Amino acid sequence: MLLLVLSCSLLLSETSASVPLPTPVSGDPDPAKVTAALKEFSSLSGKERRQRFRAVKSAVKQFKAEKRAGREPLASTVVQVIVAILLPPLGVYLHEGTINSRFWISLLLTLLFYLPGLIYALVIILGDN
């Protein structure tokens, strides 16, 4: 909640269409700055508050889309292969980072016959590198 309020207060000073995401701050924020940001945010009209929340939501969506576009794996390839041997759909999920058609195919193959699900998961994990 505090991060959302701080993001909104940072967005107040931004007037451009593209909103950069605030960098994470190590440690606790300065209480005086938080109080000032809360006062500034509470002084806004309802319409402007909604606009700020929409801007924050769109910035978060943009961040998630950029993260997905980079396709950073959730785990290393070795861990993915080990997990795929034990539970193939979970290995595919760790590799893809989301539940998509590849996950469902892997789940179906694993439930019907374990070996095809295992082979499919290993092909997905090792073939995309």
TrEMBL record:
<protein>
    <submittedName>
        <fullName>YqaE/Pmp3 family membrane protein</fullName>
    </submittedName>
</protein>
<dbReference type="GO" id="GO:0016020">
    <property type="term" value="C:membrane"/>
</dbReference>
<keyword id="KW-0472">Membrane</keyword>
<feature type="transmembrane region" description="Helical">
    <location>
        <begin position="103"/>
        <end position="126"/>
    </location>
</feature>
<feature type="transmembrane region" description="Helical">
    <location>
        <begin position="74"/>
        <end position="94"/>
    </location>
</feature>
<feature type="signal peptide">
    <location>
        <begin position="1"/>
        <end position="17"/>
    </location>
</feature>
<dbReference type="Pfam" id="PF01679">
    <property type="entry name" value="Pmp3"/>
</dbReference>
<keyword id="KW-0812">Transmembrane</keyword>
<dbReference type="InterPro" id="IPR000612">
    <property type="entry name" value="PMP3"/>
</dbReference>
<keyword id="KW-1133">Transmembrane helix</keyword>
<keyword id="KW-0732">Signal</keyword>
<comment type="similarity">
    <text>Belongs to the UPF0057 (PMP3) family.</text>
</comment>
